Amino acid sequence: MTKIREIMTTDVETCTLQDSVYDVAIKMKEENVGVIPIVDDEKLVGVITDRDIVLRCIAEKESSSAMVADVMSGNLITISSDSTTNEAAHLMAEHQIRRLPVVENDRLVGIVALGDLAVRDLTDSQAKQALSEISETNETHLQH
């Protein structure tokens, strides 16, 4: 059975409680991601998603200089690197989330996304080939 540590992303960009929503949005743009974990002295304390920014900042007419703590999601669903991909899939389905921070002793060690599970669990070579062709087709269409 595949463990989370085998598929998680370990090079995760983070922000701190001292950062503004603007700082987070710039980092999301630079890294091309939709979620940034928030850490305080290396301890994971929250996450902020692009959706959080839209719903809790822009839609509430907050300034982009608002602090991360005012916009982030603090009620975290996390997983251990020793957990299985099946456990991750179950948590994601149960809580309707696409990304899980991976923590050890409250420290962020990685993140696993729904896409990581979907690609990893494709065991049929034809399915992998089809996924590859779909990606190539989309890239070709974007260039024209």
TrEMBL record:
Which parts of the chain span the membrane according to its record?
Answer: none
Indicate whether Membrane appears among the record's keywords: no
Q: Which residues form the CBS domain?
A: 8-63, 72-128
- Domain of life, per UniProt, equals Bacteria
Q: Keywords in UniProt for this one? A: CBS domain
Protein known as:
CBS domain-containing protein
Source organism = Bacillus chungangensis
